[in-house]
């Protein structure tokens, strides 16, 4: 059966040979205590110390312990109950050993109190002893070690060497102001603030500046574009040719424009003087065609038109040097690029006129051989459209027999690619080529030369109408083209 301390004390008192009258007083929870009446009439309160023990009152001991803790730099104890605050708090948890043969001790309240009186009182620390202990070198050294360990734990990245005790004691004896000065001297100097950039003040009144920019003054230049019919012949052909060649190689664009005009005069009125030097003149003119200077580029394109108009097929070896693989060395590629570029309008118009002069000056079959690769394979859709238009113009200049001699299937395949191109110019040029090819196919001489017979239609099944038989032109397109290309060409020719 579990009993409270009051019940245990009451039961033990009743079993004692000397009866003890116990009186329990009901008090508030924080002030509840048990008063016991001893046999001799003395009364001991549970809140104070035993009268027979001769010990000092508990509140004074608490004050001494708190003062000692404050002197040692520790936090005072917050325990409110002092030593011996309850008469049963000092009861042993287990019976003390006793010698054999002796009677067992009695664990009654009078016996326990008699045992407490027999024991000497616990020596209570005094304030003077606590202060002396706190001022001892050993305690100070221990406190310094704890402070250094705390600083090292707070800053693990910095290596702090332990300072000797004498230096720490000397620093403690220094005044606070001197310590602050030493700490400021030990710290690195603070960076100075960056000076503000002062702007140059604006003048109150406008200042007239008479200083001109260094270097020569720019000269306003007006380039005159002379038409081919307005060019005049020269008196000294050799001297003019000798002056034109270095000018074409000059880095100054004005000198190059003058040299191109001199070359145009020689080409139009004295073509025999330049025919022997075409291999030198054409690359120099091509260099000016590639120029970013619009005036120089237009003058060079006009010179190209004059060259083809004067020499014609003689320029065929110099027209497409390098082909699509090397457009920088191909005069035809540069003219096509200028026609389809986003350059200035007067340059584009001049390039289109020069391309038409080239097609009119060269053999149609030879020009087709140069134009068809650009119309079918070039990556730029605008170039494909311009090349297809030039090829259609070349096919339009050919006779039906020349078309058949060049190869009607080859031209039909090129038209099948152009008619499905995503460029309107290419589709329009394909329709013109298809019209020319159909007209040539209908020519009796070409029909006899081709000797094409359409295949016989399959026999119709019983009860079904016979299938529509394609015409000779439709059968020829189906025989030489793929299904989709043949349908596109047939549709374009029907339109």
TrEMBL record:
InterPro entries: ARM-like (IPR011989), ARM-type_fold (IPR016024), CLASP_N_dom (IPR024395), TOG (IPR034085). GO terms for cellular component: cytoplasmic microtubule. Residues 229-459 form the TOG domain. Residues 50-59, 103-119, 134-187 have a biased composition (Low complexity). Residues 1-17 have a biased composition (Polar residues). This is TOG domain-containing protein. Pfam families: CLASP_N. It comes from Chlorella ohadii. Transmembrane segments: none annotated. Residues 194-207 have a biased composition (Basic and acidic residues). PANTHER family: ARM REPEAT SUPERFAMILY PROTEIN (PTHR21567:SF62), CLASP (PTHR21567).
